[in-house]
Design a protein that fits this description.
heterodimer; A: about 575 residues; Elastase, domain 1; four-stranded antiparallel beta sheet; 16 helices; B: alpha/beta; Metallo-beta-lactamase, Chain A; 2 domains; seven-stranded mixed beta sheet; elongated; binds zinc ion
């Protein structure tokens, strides 16, 4: 019995060819865990349902075979483009690959956000230039559109054949499983986060494919032992070839707006005033800040890894070495980015907190920042955008600080009570965790008058690049407070001036409790439901932007119909939804 | 022709056509009677008897003689009556000397044409083809209405069918309009900055065309042809047609992969049928959005006319939305003149995106009841027809700062028309 299965996928999308001047579609092989697949394919986490609602056609479920053989190894382009079974394999393999990356990074199983273990992937869902994850449908729908180029080899563009689109959607689904509260109305950072995070993971996943990196670095080189000129490995040159290059390839036909969004994220001159600039309040603009910071950090780390290589005598270096360094940098950064989620607040996320989470996640496994200084690069790139760690020395919540920019230890940690708490249960039992939280509500300064619920208790085993590992338990709790606007004053929260006093508003709070292997609290990352400043800012933002549900209540939802949230987010990004001039 | 001068008065007659537009502008001339311009005659109602009364009233109001007809754009709620059997002919019998339509209606720019009139360019042709194909798509959706209406939620499906119906090509009306002028030369296909075709009919009245733009005017007008190329609408129509006749108990043939093995949808296991059902709903959302995009695209072909006479400025914009307005609002010479607007026909029946706030803020005659020469706004709409109109905050602004003449607020719902003299 094999432990792994190797499957052919399209490396980026069908427009990316293997040769310098055209040639076959560039493919690659990905390795995912072997499983006994049913027709579909249908496995333990993914179920491909190939139904086309626009023409009401139900394709025969694909059989990928019980032996681990890859039916599409060396398949001709025509087969890749016109065999729906290959399309099913492509989405299955890419989504499983992304899922495995998440599970590796987090050191545990990762659940979907809905009740159920298998997400439905629909590779030919409808005729529409969009792909979207729909939480209420437990599905990711991939659309298709006719190409706008009459002379194209193939008349239809399939979103299910774009590596980055599939990875992007899988990321939305996984992020929603980890932090379903990130789709709640919050501030501009959280609104921009889902989209930026999905783009970052998709980009770094594609950078994990050697063929792609090689082709971007040296489009005209075919042989594996080619050399590459050192001048092409300088920061501006890499930006041009790799980042712009990939942005160019991204969604070439499906969404030129998406492409230009990515281009712009790389192009944007860093601006330390951006977080306060109204031009960056719209969620897609906002997200570009995050993408820009992470992608530039990626380049910096990559260059750092090539330092030795570039100091060798001569004008050029082996292409393969440069490619491998790029892939390794992307992989490491991808692990950090995903792992950071466990160290992010449960609600009302800010980019500064994501930065802190990134640094903390890495610190836990590599306390000395290793050889390549990933954390330095991130700190520097975020600082260029005016984003620094959220805490200030002497901040009311601050405890001991272990390294600049990582989460501080809980304040008064010596006062935490563990009497009567079973360390073993604390690793899996929500009631045990709640007991801990409640018993320590004063030390942890948890507002006790809000509805409070433990969302999850997740034991993890995280493995570092040198084989070093860390055992932790991650537990999240959520707090909900429903008020009328005129009651905000009791919590010293500023009501948006013009908001009528009887407007229903909902405040969220919550936190992440990270326990060490002895079940002692290591970090308490919280957004307080009674944090007057943060809650006031959030309500002001929601009020200013008219973000409310269909009953006119603030703070609960943005009023998107069920299942349409991500579809609309993408359409807005692509300029396909009208911008209305007058309020309803 | 002896020189004849307008008296400077204008009478505006509003016809209650429910959701739709129908206006008659009458310009008295010294010793030479009135000149009548009919702007649109559409509706969404099926009540032909009512529309017959409207046409009778128009005949009466213009003394059985129209000087010009303006059809702002190709939507049912602006031209349906021209395609109604008997009524279209009666309107044609009013013998307008000129029929004004947007450039996108130019017969030489039809879908089959290989070249468009040169001013419109290649992109213009693509635009027209795309609009044409979009209407075929709408037709398929309407043919498919029962399937759509059977899918939940009902209000969404109804909205979809309502918008799709408005976007069906009214072949009879289009044909009638293309040869309704007294002679073929009397057809004017206009774009911003072009002549209006009304120069000879309304001497002494300055008539300016402020829209629609041609696609060459500005690159930042994102053309729907870029967003939804003709191929898209064609495929959409093919698929919708196939879906309408698909029998779930038989394996359907795929238009995408002709040889691919398929199964009857009804044979799927229950979990898969659940996904199919959910997907059907998601597709309904898509279709609605797509139809609305198409609706917007057609709205943006609306002719925008500014009539200026004796210090009065009357602005009729059909259903022009922001992209259409953009050109006019960018030209200082035009915005200067728009400030003096005395009558504004509210765009797109009061929808949020057809009265740019930037335009509204230009109007200097806005103000409370005591404002001299207070702005008059005409709102021809019906509540509850289309979820986007009339929009609350816009209506509030209209009521606060202008004298609103709104068909849907008329006390007597049997009233066919009202005439206002400016
Ligand atoms: Zn997305
Ligand atoms: Zn209309």
């Amino acid at each position: 019995m094999r432990a792994e299965r190797e499957l052919t996928i399209i490396a980026q999308d069908p427009s990316v060819r293997a040769g310098p001047s055209g040639g076959d579609i560039l493919t690659t092989k990905v390795t995912i865990p072997y499983e006994d697949l049913s027709a579909g394919p249908r496995g333990y986490r993914v179920h491909v349902v190939d139904y086309d609602a626009s023409q009401r056609v139900f394709y025969e479920p694909a059989e990928l075979g019980r032996d681990a053989d890859d039916q599409f190894r060396n398949a001709p382009d025509q087969t890749l483009l016109t065999d729906p079974a290959f399309h099913a394999q492509n989405v299955y393999a890419i989504v499983m690959r992304v899922l495995c990356r998440f599970e590796f990074a987090l050191g545990r199983r990762v659940a979907w956000s809905f009740r159920g273990h298998q997400i439905n992937l629909v590779p030919h869902a409808f005729c529409d230039a969009n792909a979207c994850y729909s939480e209420s449908d437990h599905s990711i729908f991939f659309g298709y559109v006719p190409t706008a180029h009459p002379d194209a080899d193939h008349p239809i563009v399939f979103t299910c054949l774009s590596h980055d689109i599939v990875a992007h959607e899988a990321t939305h689904a996984l992020l929603d499983g980890l932090r379903d509260s990130y789709t709640l109305p919050s501030g501009p950072d959280q609104a921009g986060f889902h989209e930026a995070f999905a783009d970052i993971v998709a980009l770094l996943s594609v950078f994990g494919v050697e063929q792609i990196v090689g082709r971007l670095l040296a489009p005209n080189s075919a042989a594996a032992d080619d050399q590459i000129g050192k001048e092409r490995l300088e920061v501006e040159a890499l930006k041009q070839s790799v980042l712009f290059g990939l942005a160019e390839e991204f969604g070439q036909e499906v969404s030129r707006f998406r492409r230009s969004a990515l281009r712009r994220a790389v192009e944007l001159p860093p601006d330390p005033d951006a977080p306060e600039d109204p031009r960056y309040e719209e969620c897609h603009e906002r997200g570009k800040i995050l993408s820009a910071a992470v992608l530039n950090a990626f380049l910096e780390v990559w260059l750092g890894r090539m330092k030795d290589l570039l100091s060798l005598p001569g004008d050029s270096v082996p292409l393969q070495r440069a490619v491998r360094d790029g892939v390794a940098a992307a992989q490491h950064l991808l692990t950090m980015v995903i792992r950071a989620l466990d160290y992010c607040p449960v609600v009302d996320l800010h980019f500064s907190e994501f930065l802190t989470a990134l640094l903390t996640a890495d610190y836990e496994l590599l306390p000395d920042d290793g050889r390549y200084k990933y954390r330095d690069a991130l700190r520097k790139q975020f600082a260029l955008w005016g984003i620094g760690p959220p805490y200030i020395l002497g901040h009311e919540d601050a405890g001991r600080i272990l390294e600049e920019g990582i989460w501080e230890r809980p304040k008064d940690e010596e006062k935490l009570r563990y009497e009567g708490i079973h360390p073993e249960s604390l690793r899996r039992d929500p009631d045990e965790v709640f007991r801990f939280l409640w018993e320590n509500r004063k030390t942890l300064r948890v507002f006790e008058h809000a509805h409070t619920v433990i969302l999850s208790v997740r034991p993890c085993l995280r493995i570092g690049p040198d084989g070093f590992f860390v055992r932790e338990t991650v537990s999240e709790y959520l707090q909900i407070l429903d008020l009328r606007a005129d009651q905000l004053r009791e919590l010293k929260i500023n009501k948006p001036e013009e908001m009528p006093g009887d407007t229903p508003v909902r405040l969220y709070g919550g936190g992440v409790l990270i326990f060490d292997e002895f079940s002692r609290l290591k970090y308490h990352i919280c957004s307080r439901v009674n944090n007057a400043d943060a809650q006031g800012k959030r309500l002001a933002y929601l009020w200013r932007n008219g973000i409310r549900d269909s009953d006119g209540r603030y703070g609960r939802s943005d009023g998107s119909p069920p299942g349409q949230r991500f579809a609309r987010m993408h359409l807005r990004r692509d300029g396909q939804l009208p911008k209305e001039e007058w309020d309803a | 022709m002896p020189e004849t001068k307008p008296t400077g008065d204008v009478r505006v007659t509003m016809y209650n056509v429910g959701f739709g537009d129908c206006f008659l502008l009458s310009f008295p001339y010294d010793g030479d009677g009135d000149r009548h311009v009919l702007i649109d005659c559409g509706t969404t109602t099926e009540d032909k008897e009512w529309m017959t009364k409207v046409v009778e009233q128009i005949e009466k109001d213009c003394g059985k003689r129209l000087d010009a007809v303006v059809v702002t754009h190709r939507h049912q709620d602006h031209l349906k009556t021209f395609g109604l059997k008997g009524l279209g002919e009666r309107l044609a019998d009013l013998k307008p000397k000129v029929v004004v339509q947007p450039w996108t209606e130019h017969p030489k720019a039809e879908a089959q044409a290989t070249s468009a009139p040169s001013v419109y360019g290649v992109r213009g042709l693509a635009q027209i083809r795309s609009l044409d194909a979009a209407q075929d798509f709408a037709e398929q959706l309407v043919a498919n209405a029962s399937r759509l209406l059977s899918a939940a939620p009902a209000d969404l499906a109804e909205e979809l069918v309502f918008v799709a119906e408005a976007n069906i090509k009214n072949k009879a009306a289009v044909a009638l309009l293309s040869h309704m002028g007294e002679e073929p030369a009397a057809a004017a296909y206009v774009h911003e900055g072009s002549e209006s075709g009304l120069e000879e009919i309304l001497p002494g009245v300055r008539v300016s065309v402020l829209g629609p733009p041609t696609l060459e005017d500005t690159t930042d007008i994102r053309s729907p042809a870029d967003r939804h190329p003709t191929q898209y609408w064609e495929l959409g129509a093919t698929l919708a047609g196939a879906a309408a006749t698909a029998d779930p108990s038989l394996p359907a043939k795929s238009a995408l992969f002709p040889g691919a093995p398929t199964l009857p949808a009804a044979s799927a296991e229950s979990h898969v049928r659940w996904v199919m059902d959910r997907l059907g709903r998601a597709e309904l959302w898509n279709a609605t959005r797509i139809v609305e995009a198409m609706n917007d695209a057609l709205n943006n072909t609306s002719v925008i006319l500014l009539f200026e006479v004796d210090g009065k400025a009357l602005l009729f914009s059909g259903d022009a939305q922001w992209e259409n307005w953009a050109w006019a609002l960018k030209a200082p010479a035009i915005t200067e003149r728009l400030k003096a607007t005395t009558l504004y026909k509210v765009g797109h029946h009061g929808s949020t995106n057809a009265t740019p706030q930037k335009l509204w803020e230009l109007f200097e005659n806005r103000g409370d009841e005591n404002t001299p020469n207070r702005l008059v706004t005409l709102l021809s709409t019906k509540e509850g027809k289309h979820h986007r109109v009339p929009r609350c905050s816009l209506v509030k602004a209209l009521q606060a700062d202008s004298t609103v003449r709104a068909t849907y607020l008329w006390e007597d719902s049997d009233q066919i028309s009202k005439t206002y003299t400016l």
